[in-house]
Amino acid sequence: MLASPDLAPHGGAPAGERVACEHAGTCGGCPLIELPYPDQLARKRDEVAGAVARYAALRSLGVEAVLPASPIVGYRPRAKLMVAPGGRVGLFAKGGGHEVVDIPGCRVLAPALARVAAVLRASIASAEAGGGPLGPHGAAKPGWLRALDLREASDGGASRVLVTFVVEKSSVTDVARLRAAAEELMRAAPEVAGVAASFHRGDGPQVLGSETVPLAGATSVPDRAGSSVHLGTFGSFVQGHREQAARLHAMLADALLSRETPGRRPRVLDLYGGSGSLALGLAAAGASVRLVESFGPAVGQARAAARAQGADVEAEHADVADAVRAMSERRETFDAAVVNPPRRGTSPVIREQLARLAPAVIAYVSCDPETLARDLDHFARLGYRADALRPLDMIPLTDQVETFAVLRRSEVPAPTILYEDQGLLVVEKGPHEPTTPQGEYAGSLLTRARRIAGADGAVPVHRLDVGTSGLVMLARRPENVEAWARMLSAGSTRKLYLAGVRGVTPIKGSVARALLEDGKLRDARTRYRRIAIVGGHSLLRVQPEQGRTHQIRRHLAAIGHPVLGDQRYGHAPTNRHFEEKHGLDRTFLHCSRLEITHPITGARLVIDAPLPGDLRTVIERTSDPGDGIVAKLSARRR
């Protein structure tokens, strides 16, 4: 029950009060439930502001107050509920692990979902006692059920629910018995419009399996979000709050369709378009929309909804990166684009190719502030900037926050200067950009550096790989290169890198191994010292004594400690883990310091490059806050 019947204007909870729930002490589903709602909103804004503050290019970006939700209880249109022996149907307990907390009377489920969940809870308890297909997997008597996926849909009338049984796939799984259980559920719960089975194999982390089979009733149900009606189906994505989703639709239409396109409908590209909720809303507002989605069933639902409504939506089933690259090669044009990616954000390829398509405006809808900040930092180097971020409370009582950003074409910024004199520039290179122009990339460090006064003829003294960040030396004029290159290879020069590598290395060591270069084996030696252990892996200070191609990456891989995120020499499962969990979408390698003697003055130069925001994010997410690793790295530079 709520603490008071007097609701605040934002609805759902009294101003300054808390939502009471009997499961709050054990269930991990609503981690902010014990905070007053205004404090929850403030914390979410701080999370967005903290993410962008890690990037120098984004520090002037305004972060608005979080748009509050109404209501904040009884709002969730979808629930993935785990099933465990003992009749438990709920979520994992606080503190991690896989202990399932039974949550009858959950405060956040939409009423229709709560009613269906109650019927299922009783059926599961009965099946566990007497045996049956809906008995919990792992119970004393044979049972197949691992989880439930409940999806509410409403087109202005009574709510209807799609139910997915997540069952363990084995030789004894009987689809006919599952069909009988589905039909029984539909008789017991009139809200249920259709039932399917999702077959799960093994102990993978995903709740849903890769194979879904309809069992009874409808396979899709009309569902309204704002001005659009799309088709909800089993396992399909839906925004966490219906009223907030309607506000998001209005914000998108205002941002993307405000430009005049005389005589035609504005063309909008919708990436990660799902079953078409955003695309159909934009089409209803007057746009011609091209939707791209990699999940085939969702594309089919988008096409069916577009046909039924006569909406100007073309839905393409394709990998998003492949589709955008093909559009760029065909030189297709769009007035605007909307990007609504999963938590891992967009890939570097998608950002590059979207910039090549050159829409006037890009709307980015993000459910993860840290990958949003990483992507906005890259977009800024590609010539797209946001003026402000608008967070929305899409999932009240949780620590999740949705953020809306509008990016417009702007001038490509010059790189930050770390040192300069009459003959030399040392500048900061970001990740995902080549040192010099390459055909598959929209820009380069050198192109940006030539925007600096007196550097229109600059040439590189050395280069960094595309995925490596840090300091790069540029001679202002070609005749300056030889003297600086000679000093760069001198024995007194030190070029230091920060590297994150797989596994725990010795505290220090060196790798002396010849490397094949230009058809010849050439001597190469790399020294390293471990400066921290983060998330079971090592943070190293690395000094290559030569500058062979990929020397650090090849040497560290050769001793069984490849650089994290290295797609060529690295460990693919570890790379995937760091991308999905920590947003690392490039090699964890940063050229952090140069110690070199000036070839003319003889002065000893020590030049440092600050830790980039994406690597700082990875360190902070994988280390104990009390370790203060980022602060220690900053102190070392001083």
SSE blueprint:
Blueprint: H1 37-53, E1 62-63, E2 78-84, E3 88-92, E4 100-102, H2 111-130, E5 145-153, E6 160-168, H3 175-188, E7 192-200, E8 211-217, E9 220-225, E10 228-233, H4 242-256, E11 267-271, H5 277-284, E12 288-293, H6 296-309, E13 313-317, H7 320-329, E14 336-339, H8 348-357, E15 361-366, H9 369-381, E16 384-392, E17 402-409, E18 417-420, E19 424-429, H10 445-449, E20 459-460, E21 469-475, H11 481-488, E22 494-501, E23 508-512, E24 515-517, E25 520-522, E26 525-534, E27 537-544, H12 551-558, H13 572-582, E28 589-597, E29 604-608, H14 613-622, H15 629-637
Parallel strand pairs: 1-16, 6-7, 11-12, 11-14, 12-13, 14-15, 21-28
Antiparallel strand pairs: 2-3, 2-5, 3-4, 5-6, 7-8, 9-10, 15-17, 16-17, 18-19, 19-21, 20-21, 22-27, 22-28, 23-26, 24-25, 26-27, 28-29
Task: Describe it.
The protein is globular. The longest helix has 20 residues, at 111-130. Helix content is 27%, strand content 28%. With 638 residues, it is α+β, with helices and mostly antiparallel strands. It has three domains: 47-68 and 225-409, 3-Layer(aba) Sandwich (Rossmann fold), CATH 3.40.50; 76-224, Beta Barrel (OB fold (Dihydrolipoamide Acetyltransferase, E2P)), CATH 2.40.50; 489-637, Pseudouridine synthase, CATH 3.30.2350. Strands 18, 19, 20, 21, 22, 23, 26, 27, 28 and 29 form a ten-stranded mixed sheet that branches. Strands 1-16-17-15-14-11-12-13 form an eight-stranded mixed sheet, with helices on both faces. A seven-stranded mixed sheet has the order 4-3-2-5-6-7-8. The chain starts with 36 loop residues before the first helix and ends with a helix.
